[in-house]
Amino acid sequence: xxxxxxxxxxxxxxxxxxxxxxxxxxxxxxxxxxxxxxxxxxxxxxxxxxxxxxxxxxxxxxxxxxxxxxxxxxxxxxxxxxxxxxxxxxxxxxx
Length: 95
Fold this sequence. Notes:
By secondary structure, the chain is mainly alpha-helical. About 50% of the residues lie in helices and about 10% in strands. The chain has a two-stranded parallel sheet.
């Protein structure tokens, strides 16, 4: 990702996550945007400027038949409150 961000500029890229662990999402989104917050990994102090989205935020951009086949069951596994928490974390990471 670092190489891609250098080649295409971070503003031209985005990362899409499918995981539902809030803490992990937060760390990963921060890492791609601002650099590794733990200052332990290869992106420590290296902001890539890449915005992150969760797949649940992109449903309107995915054809309905594809969403039904690939994501509908996954979406049902995540409670509504958890989906809202995911959206809040992802929106905050892009602010």
